[in-house]
Design brief:
Blueprint: H1 2-23, H2 25-30, H3 39-56, H4 60-86, H5 96-119
Length: 120
């Protein structure tokens, strides 16, 4: 039961996070490191990936693939989280301590996804 609740919460979390990329694209594009090309495209791809992966977590047959995809996505966006912290918030009003906490939190999110790979 706990695993099912966790799975639903995780799926909803990624679906809504992905939708937010399209609702507030400027916020996400501001934290994309300036060395990376096409911030709008990167934002759209990562937002769409979050939505799709969140949906794919729900069916048992696609759950492991989705969880592995979430881990890969979290690794791929980690440079943006580092940039967000090092840039002092990239002009967004986020406390520096929250940006620092977010860095190890990414690993907690990876472990949460891995739990569904490991025991599904």
């Amino acid at each position: 039961m706990m695993k099912n609740v966790s799975l639903i919460i995780q799926a909803i979390f990624y679906i809504f996070a992905g939708i937010n990329h399209f609702r507030m694209p400027r916020m996400y594009m501001r934290i994309i490191p300036p060395q990376l090309p096409s911030p709008e495209l990167l934002n759209n791809v990562s937002g769409a990936a979050e939505i799709v992966l969140g949906l794919l977590l729900l069916p048992k047959r696609t759950r492991k693939l989705a969880a592995k995809g979430i881990i890969a996505l979290l690794i791929a966006v980690y440079p943006a989280n580092i940039y967000h912290f090092l840039s002092g918030g990239a002009g967004l009003k986020v406390p520096q301590w929250a940006l620092l906490v977010r860095l190890p939190l990414q690993f907690v999110l990876m472990a949460w996804a891995w739990w569904h790979v490991r025991e599904s």
